Every structure is written in structure tokens, then in C-alpha cells.
Amino acid sequence: MAAANTLNKVQEVREVTRLERIGAHSHVRGLGLNDDLEPRQVSQGMVGQLAARRAAGVILEMIKEGKIAGRALLIAGQPGTGKTAIAMGMAQAMSKDAPFQAMAGSEIFSLEMSKTEALTQAFRKSIGVRIKEETELIEGEVVEVSVERPATGTGAKVGKLTLKTTDMETVFDLGQKMIEQITKEKIQAGDIITIDKSSGKVSKLGRSFTRARDYDATDSQTRFVQCPEGELQKRKEVVHTVTIHEIDVINSRTQGFLALFSGDTGEIKSEVREQINSKVAEWREEGKAEIIPGVLFIDEVHMLDIECFSFLNRLLESDMAPVLIMATNRGITRIRGTNYKSPHGIPIDLLDRLLIIATSPYSEKETKQILEIRCEEEDVEMEEQALTVLTRIGLETSLRYAIQLITAASLVCRKRKGTEVSVEDIKKVYSLFIDESRSTTFLKEYQEEFMFNELTGAGDATTMEVS
Amino acid sequence: EMARDPQFVMRYMEELEQLAEDVLSDKQQIVDLDKKRNSNREALAALHKKTTAPASSQNKTWLNFGGVFLKLPKKSAITMLQSDQAELDKEISQIRDNLHNKVNKLRDAQGESDLLGYGLHPLSKAELNRVMH
């Protein structure tokens, strides 16, 4: 039971980090397509980008039929046109427990880890392994528990435990160890407990509803549960999905479990990885494990350099490869680490393997719909007029900026004890936080007063491109 | 169109009921077998206990076989019960294994997808340790 508990905790922690990373797309539930792969205008949190969504849906079908091995997907489009949303939607539509790993191209450049190690880890974080844990346990409501010391005063204690379900009742003779546990856990009549068959560990699930009026035995933390149904000795099956990377970490260190939390995994030896690959393959043969290829999403893929690209080419050929989705907002640009120019800054040989989807800027109506969805997702009530103003801001500045204003405006609204965000609230935050174009205008106007302003225009441009 | 045909609907409902009934009766059978298993266990525990009876009657015991009391040597009573237990364990486990298919069939008929990972063979404790915690 303890093991199961810790596991639940790990999953909770993982989901929180997941939410943080892609919070801007927490409303996406799928690609919003019907059974014929026709996109609905607004569905599952998706708005517009009909052609791109349809293309993504077709690719999903290919993935399900296993026809996309060794291939990958590139989403190209201007900033704020839903590239990440489409990648998220694909992951959601694949399988409920398919891992989705999102990273930015620049994340792989670190002093602690080589680029190839970072890429390998990202790959293995996006491959899930589904396994099953099976335990036999006794689960029932305590009808009576008695522990007696022998009349002589010394010697072993004897005990009896009566358990029932809604269908049956039985008596257990308690051994020394069981008596100790029952005493320690303060088990008494009316408790619902489980006993693990193999380890004999006793856990209290709560108190029976029928005992809710025994005021002396309850405190504020008491949980009330139904008396279990059916047989007393049950088989409990729990299906877990872990990523191959998590298995790598557990097997490469003695204190592996902690490394998962601290994030300090360092480099993992290739022998460990080979061993795990063959073990997982063996389990798969024996029907003990299922591989769930997830999605690895690399945003700003033009930030990768030529070495990374050739490594990606190789990784894509492995038989467990996840679906690789890349996104870029660049046109023809220099491939990092070379002096060659190429479309999207990606070498031609890799580009050749890619299926390319283009996204286009949202229309006014679509922008409004997206902002509406985001308001709902963030639990913000907004006046119709305020939404119209925000839509205009979104069109003239950027969608991201408008989305960011939602939270800020709702805070301003709450401060004045309002319930609905008004035009005034939007105006206030619009004046508090400047958008990119106003920031640029401001900089152009006051350039002289900033530091390091002696850089020439041309020099500026090259620094931008390198970093 | 097919859904509007009352005959078709009836046949579908019939099929669904049959599949559900199959699952429910299996569940009831597990309960019945577990009852037997637990009363056997109680009997075994009682047989292993030291009694205050005179030494002459220590070697034999009464056993209730579905309403009929039989006097048997303790040893053979214990072996009988133990083999019965092994048989029960096997039977219960078999029903549970088959239940997987029946539940999936029922879900399929109801238009639901199979439960994820339901058909997997479980990992042993040692194997689990390599994968988790």
C-alpha cells in the first residue's frame, strides 16, 4: 500500500509540473475533429486553423496505423498561431496516458549535460511503458477485534478479528505480528481495513458509514467509507504508465527515486539504457508491458545546431521512437553551426523526412473565441464589451499579450471588488503593461539614454541571430 | 435507420443483458467460492489449535460435509481441507482471468473502448522494483 501511495504522489507531482509548463494551453483536450477527420470550427478547446488541424488528424491516423515510423512533423507559422496547441491536441488525441514532452530548442544547451544526452533524455521521456501491478488483499469492515493476554500473564497473546463485507463474514485468528500491527494502527470495530496478502500489512481506509454516530470514536479527520461489497479476498489490479526515462533513472542510481524530484539526473550510462531496452522488449514479448509512443515537441527548433539535427535523424530510426513534432517561426535562415542557409534553418536531409503543416494568423472572430475560451479556463467573467476591446488589442498587438491581460485584468477587477471584468479594467492593465510594439517604439525614441547604445544596426542584427 | 427498428433494438438489448448477466453471475460465483474458502480456513485454524479434550479423542475430529457430520482422523481432515483450498484458489483465479474478456466484451457492446492495460500480465514484485520506487 505504501508503494501505491508514493506512486500516486509521484504522479501528482508530475502533473503539476506539466500544468505549469504548458499552462497557456491547459484548455486543449484534443484536435476537435469529427469521425471523418473534419475539423469543427470550435471544439475541444481548439479554434480555427482548420487546414492544420485536419492535417494533424490525418497524421494521427497514420501514427495509429504505424505508418509514420522514422518520420516527423514540422509545424511552421508565425508566433501565436497555435503551433503548441496543435502539438498538445495531438498528444491528447493519441492516448489518455501517452506522455507529452515539451521543450524549447535552446534547452539542450547546458554545461552539465552534452547535447546528445539532453536529446536522448527528451526522447525517452516521451516513450511510455504501461505495466500492471497485481495484489491479493483482504478488504472488509471490522465487526469485532479482541486481543487477550494468557491468564498466566506471560507468553504469547491471542487475538481474533472478525471481518465482513455486505455479502459475507469470517473470523481470523491473529498471530503475534498481526496483533502488533492492529494495536499500532488502533484498529477497532467499525473500521474499514485492508490486509495485503503477501506482506500482511494492515491499512485503515476509514470508518464505516453505519458507525457515523459513534461520536466518541471520530475526529475531524475521520473518513467515512461504505462497507465493501462482494468477496473478502480481492484481487486488486493497478495499471501504471511510466516513461522509459524514469526507468533509466531508477536503474542508474541507488537513490534514483530522489533524483526524479531534484531533477539532477546527470548523464545515464549507455549500458543501463541498453539493458532496459532489452528488458522492456522481453516484457513486451511476454505480454507484461505495452509501449506507448508519446509526443516529443521541440519548439523553436531552429535553435538546434547541425550536430543535434544529425543526432535527431539517427534517433528517429529507433523502433521505439515517439512522434517528433517540431515548430518554428523562421523562414529561410542559417543552420546553426554551419554557414549554409536552409528553409526553417533545418538541414535538407532532415527536412526531407518531415511532414510540414502551416498555421496562419487568426481572424478577428477566432481571436475572440480563443479569448473567450481562455476566460472560461481561468474562471474569469468578462463583459461583452471588454471582450471586444481585448480582441482588438489581440489583433493589433499579439494574441499572447491579450491572453496575459486576462489574468491581470481579473486581478484589477477583484481589487475593486467587481465580479465582471469591465472595459476600464482592460484599459488599466493595458496602460500598466506595455506590449512588444509599444516597447519597441519606446526604445527607438529613448535609445540614446540606454547603456551600450553605440552598437551599430548591423552588429545588432548578427547578435540577434547568433543568440 | 437500424436503431429505429424495434426488433433490432430488442435484439441489441437482449445481447447486452446477456453479457451483463454473465459478468454479474461470475462475480456472485467468486463471492460464493470465497465464502467456502474462508470457512475452510476457519476450520483449518480450529484443527491446528490445541484442545483440552482427552488424549484418546485428540486424533479424530468431526467434520461437517454439507449437513452430514463425519468423524475423521485429524490428519486426513486437514489434507482434505487443504486440497479443497488449492482447488478453490485455482477456480477463483480462473474466473477472474476470464472476467477480463467478458468485461471487455460488455464494454465493446456498449460502445466503450477496452480498459487501458487491462489485458496485461502483471509484473512480479522483483520486476516492479526495477520500474518504480
TrEMBL record, chain A:
SUPFAM superfamilies xrefs: P-loop containing nucleoside triphosphate hydrolases (SSF52540)
A biological-process GO annotation: DNA recombination
EC class (word): hydrolase
Chloroplast as UniProt keyword: no
Gene Ontology molecular-function annotations: ATP binding; ATP hydrolysis activity; DNA helicase activity
Main location as per UniProt: other
TM region(s), chain numbering: none
Keywords: ATP-binding, DNA damage, DNA recombination, DNA repair, Helicase, Hydrolase, Nucleotide-binding, Nucleus, Transcription, Transcription regulation
Domain AAA+ ATPase: residue ranges: 69-361
InterPro entries to which the protein is assigned, alphabetical: AAA+_ATPase, P-loop_NTPase, RuvB-like, RuvB-like_C, RuvBL1/2_DNA/RNA_bd_dom, TIP49_P-loop
GO cellular component terms listed in the entry, alphabetical order: dynein axonemal particle; extracellular region; Ino80 complex; NuA4 histone acetyltransferase complex; R2TP complex; Swr1 complex
Places the protein is found: Dynein axonemal particle; Nucleus
Annotated EC: 3.6.4.12
UniProt keyword annotation of Cytoplasm present: no
Annotated catalysed reactions: ATP + H2O = ADP + phosphate + H(+)
Similarity comment text for this entry: Belongs to the RuvB family.
Stated name of the protein: RuvB-like helicase
Species for this entry: Ciona intestinalis (Transparent sea squirt)
Organism lineage string: Eukaryota, Metazoa, Chordata, Tunicata, Ascidiacea
UniProtKB/TrEMBL annotation, chain B:
Lineage: superkingdom: Eukaryota
Keyword Coiled coil assigned: yes
A GO CC term attached to the entry: cytoplasm
GO biological process, one term: protein folding
SUPFAM superfamilies: Prefoldin (SSF46579)
Entry keyword set: Chaperone, Coiled coil, Cytoplasm
Coiled coil: 78-112
GO molecular function: unfolded protein binding
KW Chaperone (keyword) present: yes
Pfam families: Prefoldin_2
Leader sequence segment: none
Main location: cytoplasm
Subcellular location: Cytoplasm
Record CDD domains: PDRG1
Similarity field: Belongs to the prefoldin subunit beta family.
Record's function text: May play a role in chaperone-mediated protein folding.
Subunit relationships: Component of the PAQosome complex which is responsible for the biogenesis of several protein complexes and which consists of R2TP complex members RUVBL1, RUVBL2, RPAP3 and PIH1D1, URI complex members PFDN2, PFDN6, PDRG1, UXT and URI1 as well as ASDURF, POLR2E and DNAAF10/WDR92.
The protein's name in its UniProt record: p53 and DNA damage-regulated protein 1
